[in-house]
Amino acid sequence: MLERLNEAMEHIERHLDRPVGTGELARIAMTSDYHFRRMFSTLAGMPLSEYLRRRRLTVAGAEVLAGERTLLDIAMRYGYCSGEAFARAFRGLHGVGPGEARRTGAALRSQPRMTFRLVVEGSSTMEYRIVAKKEFRVVGKKARVPLVYEGANPAIVEFVKGLGTEMVQRIHALSDQDPEGIVAVCDGLDPNRAEGTELDYYHAVVTNAPVPPDMDTLTVPPGAWGVFTNTGPYPQALQTLWADIFAQWFPSNPYRSRPGPEILRTRMAPDGTTATSELWIPVERTPV
C-alpha cells in the first residue's frame, strides 16, 4: 500500500502545473477516494488540498527567483486566475509578495515533497479485531464542533460538562450492545479533514432501544468495523493509536476505511493518568 501511495505522490510532482484529481490519485494507489483522503490527511498531518497548494507555491517560488518567466505566466502555470490571487497566496506561504521576492532575492519557505515509509517503533501495543455489525443507532446528545487534532477539544469538553449527570445517566441506561456504555462518536467530517472544519459529535450509546424524544439519533447501516485497542497515558496513547492505525495497520492489512461514523470508547484508570481506548473505524475488504 505504501509503495502505491508513493506512486501517487510521484504523480503529484509530475503534475503540479495542472489540475490533480483525488480520483486519479486514488486509482494509482488502488484504493477508494474516501480512503485515500483519509489516509493522506492522517499520515501527512494536513489535507491533500493544502499539500498541493504548498507544493505548487514552493515550486512557483523557485521560478519567481529564477526570473525566466513573468509573474503572470507563473501565476497561470500554477492554477491562479490572476496575478492578484497568486500574490495573496504567495505572501500567505512565503511572507513576502512575488514581486518583492524577485527584486530582493528574499528567502522563501519550502514545503518538502512527501514520501511515506513504514516505521515500526514499538511505541504502543495495539490489538485489533474485525467485527460485523447489523444496523444500529447512536443515541444521545449531539453538538456541532470544530475538528482538533492535538489535546482536548475545548468545544467537546464544554458540551459534555453542560449535559448534566441526569442526562448522562439516562443516555447510559440505553446501552444494549457492544461497544458498551458511553461512547464518543464523530460523524459528518469534512472530506479533507482540515483542522478547524466542523463535525457532528455525539455523547451517546450504541443501541437499538427506542429513542427518547429529547435525544438525538444517528442510524448506522450494517457493515464491518475494525476495532483497535490500546492502553497507556491519556490522551497521548490514543493519539498514537490513531497514527499507528493509518501508518502501520492499513498498509499491512487487506482493508481500507469506508464512510461512516468513528466511535471511541474510553475507560480511565482510577488515578486518571492512563486509559484503555477502544476505537471503532468502519472498514471494508480491499478488492483483490
Give a short summary of the structure.
The protein is of the alpha+beta class and 288 residues long. It has helices spanning 2-14, 22-29, 33-44, 48-66, 71-77, 83-94, 98-104, 154-161, 165-172, 236-252; strands at 127-133, 136-146, 183-187, 198-207, 216-220, 223-233, 255-257, 262-268, 274-285. It folds into 2 domains: 2-104, Arc Repressor Mutant, subunit A (Orthogonal Bundle); 127-285, Multidrug-efflux Transporter 1 Regulator Bmrr, Chain A (Alpha-Beta Barrel), CATH 3.20.80.
Number of helical segments with 4 or more residues: 10
Coarse morphology: elongated
Structural class by secondary-structure content: alpha+beta
Per DSSP E runs of 2 or more residues, the count of β-strands stands at: 9
SSE pattern, N- to C-terminal = HHHHHHHEEHHEEEEHEEE
Radius of gyration: 22 Å
CATH third-level topology of the largest domain: Multidrug-efflux Transporter 1 Regulator Bmrr, Chain A
Determine the strand fraction and express it as a percent band: 15-25%
Please, could you describe this protein's structure?
There is one protein chain. The protein is an alpha+beta fold and 288 residues long. It folds into 2 domains: 2-104, Arc Repressor Mutant, subunit A; 127-285, Multidrug-efflux Transporter 1 Regulator Bmrr, Chain A. The protein has 10 helices and 9 strands. Strands 1, 2, 3, 4, 5, 6, 7, 8 and 9 form a 9-stranded antiparallel β-sheet that branches. The chain starts with a helix and ends with a strand. The model has no long low-confidence stretch (mean pLDDT 89).
